[in-house]
Amino acid sequence: MSATLYRLASAPFEAACHVGALPEGHRARRLHGHSYLARVRVRHAAADGPCDCAGLAGRLAATVAPLDYAYLNDIVAEPTDENLARWIGARLDLPGVAALGIQSTPLAGVDLDAGGGAHVWRRFRFEAAHRLPHVPPGHPCGRMHGHGFEVILHAQTALGTRDLALDHDHLAALWAPLHAELHHACLNDLPGLANPTSELLAAWIWARLKGVLPELSWVTVYETVSAGCHYDGHHYRIWKEQRFEAALQLTRAAAGDPRRGLHGHSYVVRLHLAAPLDTVMGWTVDYGEVKALFAPLYQQIDHHRLDALPGLDQADPASLAQWLRERLHAALPALDRIDLFETPACGVALCWGGLGPALPG
Ligand SMILES: Nc1nc2c(c(=O)[nH]1)N=C([C@H](O)[C@H](O)COP(=O)(O)OP(=O)(O)OP(=O)(O)O)CN2
């Protein structure tokens, strides 16, 4: 199956603003400040040459530099997240931009797609207990345990020429009654959540909100910091994330590029899988099983020199993601996307499933 490769990059900036486009009395009409993060996802074709995600991260950082420690209203008349994303997109001036996003806090942001759509998201957290009643004896999730769950509500809407797609506060207001039910609860005790897997929790939240939020496009549930599930009303997609530490040398980098010499990174790899729900277990694929099936490959890359691995003489993120795909597809047939970050600011997403790339990433 052919795959689509995206370069992913992000760049932070600190800035002050006030947003007059919001209704009278809204707190963001007052002068305030944010630690912003700009994010971009750019489609990369073989004809584009080497897939240099660090180059993209550098270009994005240079593009947002005029916004750093600035009063944004001097630069963008109405500095909503949507307008900041437009401003950055126009100056980045790159072909193949699939999404350009701004998060004004770690809890909220918006991504603009190439078709003029706005994808608004807001992150929430609740602390709860649960156990999974149908797992085999001895499975750790069969015991009563708990998590600091995180949920992202995603809303997709056409933006047109508007300054603002949807106020994040609207998502927060709709979430509030669910938070009251879920926070400090035992999920198994809630009606409809007798088997509270991430998948069934995401579907439960979807069923509760879709009627009052027609723009709802995905619900994301982070069960732990490293694993979670997306649900869009039809499809379940899960991910499992792992970190690894490795060295490499990019012998084909341009003359003078320090990456021609030995260097290293703390990598993050995120494996995404799309599969139908197992109606007995209430999940798609067990996160623990994904980790176990990845383990033999993980042992080859963690605390190793990547360019010494058989079949991987250039260990740039795109080549490494492809290398992992070739070695994982037999063990994990539901795998349909691999995200690989060499730093928090730069990486790739290799996607070959029928569904578009789901956030995060
Ligand atoms: N597809 C699903 N798989 C699993 C679910 C689930 O809801 N859907 N739930 C669990 C457990 O509840 C467990 O607490 C979380 O799983 P896991 O990522 O395996 O937990 P760890 O944090 O312990 O993982 P490590 O990476 O090994 O630290 C299991 N599977």
UniProtKB/TrEMBL annotation:
Gene3D superfamilies to which the protein is assigned, alphabetical: 6-pyruvoyl tetrahydropterin synthase/QueD
Q: Which GO terms describe its molecular function?
A: 6-carboxytetrahydropterin synthase activity; metal ion binding
Q: Which domain of life is it from?
A: Bacteria
Q: In which pathway does it act?
A: Purine metabolism; 7-cyano-7-deazaguanine biosynthesis
Q: Does the keyword Zinc apply?
A: yes
EC number, UniProt record: 4.1.2.50
Catalyses which reaction? 7,8-dihydroneopterin 3'-triphosphate + H2O = 6-carboxy-5,6,7,8-tetrahydropterin + triphosphate + acetaldehyde + 2 H(+)
Q: Which cofactor does it need?
A: Zn(2+)
Q: Which UniProt keywords apply?
A: Lyase, Metal-binding, Zinc
- The enzyme class is lyase
Family, as annotated: Belongs to the PTPS family. QueD subfamily.
Name of protein: 6-carboxy-5,6,7,8-tetrahydropterin synthase
